[in-house]
Every structure is written in structure tokens, then in C-alpha cells.
Amino acid sequence: MSPSTDRTTKKVWTLDQLGALDLGVAEEDLAIRDTTRKALADLARPHVAQWYLDGALPVRDLAKELGSLGLLGMHLDGYGCAGTSATAYGLVCAEVEAVDSGLRSLVSVQGSLAMFSIHAYGSEEQKQEWLPRMATGEAIGCFGLTEPDQGSDPGNMRTRARRDGDDWVLDGTKMWITNGSVASVAVVWAQTEDGIRGFVVPTDTKGFSAPEIKGKLSLRASVTSELVLEGVRLPDSAMLPGAKGLSGPLGALSEARYGIVFGAMGAARDALTTAIDYAGSREQFGRPIAGFQLTQAKLVDLGTDYITGMLLALQLGRLKDAGQITPQQVSLGKLNNVRRALAIARECRSVLGANGISSEYAPLRHAANLESVLTYEGTTEMHTLVLGQALTGHAAFRG
User: Fold this and answer.
1) Is the pTM value of this prediction over 0.85?
2) Are 262 and 387 in a shared domain?
3) Dihedral (CA of 107, 110, 111, 112) sign
4) Domains in the chain: how many in total?
5) Tens of pLDDT, residues 203-226
6) Residues with pLDDT less than 50, the chain
7) Where a domain ends, among 71, 106, 136?
8) Is residue 113 part of a domain?
9) Domain that holds residue 261
């Protein structure tokens, strides 16, 4: 066949090659990413579609496996934590969410919410008691902030902690809590006479219960629970001494949002590579559908969105490693990348046609999961208002 009629390319680029995404990333960080990708190929990928269909995840077993890889609280220092760079943690979040958003939620809630809160705000006794066991996955943590009637406005939470002698007594309900019913410890935020404070609550404490939430259409490969606190009595030492007011839980949320900036792009990449591979093997009218202009237009647009999102994530990683990242920049990353990832996953499903609704293929599962990711750790509306205030100087959260 002459070159003028040969329609095959001389080279097929991967998405990461096309965006030169590894350029400038430390070799150690890339090695951690690659090790995680290889481990998850055996540990989770063969099973995740069934976990999703079953609406169940073997959290305790997975936590120990992830802990043995050093992935739980990996960006924290000391107490058995790996102390990696923020960029390495982000790249790991991308690899974990490329498998499933529910699995990344397990990692994020453990490391960036529960462990981070104890590490950043806890007493030395609290750190020594919980962090080493949480880093290995022996102890699982959860983070109790959201309530049935208070999601985006946690300052109006109804959970109360009152003094009773030298003790604290907690009453209230938390909702949509990842890991809740399998956790050994819960970081619970409550109103006190002195403002919002955080408490380290062993889940075997009398009056604490965590019924699992069933019937989810998203994040099915994740344990999601309600937390019910009915006269939960704790010693004074259970309070997190370093957190007062909303700055405590919001600081932890910013850590988790940072992981989502990368994680969402992992889900997008997995959906997109699935669509590209499928388009190359699915033949219609005597040729692969990858050879048709309309299919290529979809893949090019989606690939451009993915590469753009990853470049943003990597820039935020560099800022975080330099100690210069701001909550507004994290909001920018979360808002942009989750919206892009959701759009990518939905359109990738269309490339697969009818086969796209089968559990054999990941894009629709990723799209369903990303509907939750779009909402938790700050809704699209809330991050839009954060950025609106940053750009105009006017707060528009009320009125």
C-alpha cells in the first residue's frame, strides 16, 4: 500500500505521552505511582465490577493490603506514615480512582480526613494511640461532619457536645459517612459552648452506632453509613486540642479535596483508555470505529480535557509540595477536574454504544461514581462561590 493511501499512523501515543505528563515529576514519585498501579491490577481490578454490583467492599482486608503498600496517610510524617510528597499522594489517588472512586474514598477518608485530623490537631497521646494502627490498616477511621440537614453549611450542625463533670457527652446524627460501619475510630465534629470542636470517638463507645446506608446508585463499592450518637460519654482527653471552630474540619476537607483533584482524573483516564481501546477493536462498516471522524472528534476532545485536568493537578501538587497552595486553588482543581471527569466518563460510554451499559466496561460505573464525587467535599455550587469571592471580593453564600 502506498503512503498516500495508508491510513494507519506511524505511532500511537498514550494520553500521558501526548501531554508529557511525567516531565518534571520526581522519579521517586513516578515509582510510587507505578508500584501502586501494578499492585491494584492484582488486588482490586479483577474484583471491582462485582463489588460494585454487590454493593459491598471488603474494607478491612483492603485496608490492610493498602496499609502494607504504605498508602494510608502516606503524605503525613511520623507515626508509621510514609512521609511522601504531596505529588506522590496525588498520583496514587489517581491510580486508586482509576480502579473505582469508592476505593479512593476509602484511602482519602482514612488518610486525608481521619488521620490528618488526628495528625494536625490531636494530642501526642491521640497520635500515638491511633496513627500507627491506622497507617497499617489495622484500625479504620471515619470522619463525621455532614448531617442529614446540614451539608454545605456545617456551621449550623446540630450535633452537640456538653460538659458533664470532667467528661463530654455527645448527641447527634451524622450522614453519608464513608467507612462508618467498619471504623474503629470516628473523628466527630460537634457544637459546644465554646464553638465547634472535634472529638476522637472509639466506635465501641456506648451509645455510638453506625447503620449502613443501602440502596445507593453511586459509590456502590464503598461502605457508607449514618453515625448515631446517643449520650456518648467521652473523657476530656478525647477532644482534639488543636482544632477550634470550622477551620479544623475545613482544613481536613481541603486535604481530601486535593486528592480528589488527581483522583477524578484517574477515573477519567480509565474511562478514556477503555473507549480508545474499544474504538480500535469494534468494527462497523468494515473498519474499526476509531477510523471514523466523528469518533475521533470525541476522543480528541476528551483526551484534551483529560490532559488539561492532569496538568492542573500536577501544578497544584507542585504548589502543595512548596507549601504555597491555598484553599481557593484546591477549590479550582476540585471544581474543574470533577466536572471534566464526569463529562469524559459519560461521553466514553457513548463510544461503547450499547456495550457501554454493561458492567464489563468501566465508563458508566465511573460516571455514576463521579456523580457522588461532584457533590461530596463541597458541591459545584459551593466551590463556584468560593472562586467567585476570590475573583470579585464579594461573598455570595447568602442572599
Assistant:
1) yes
2) yes
3) positive
4) 3
5) 999 999 999 999 999 999 999 999
6) 1-5
7) 136
8) yes
9) 248-392
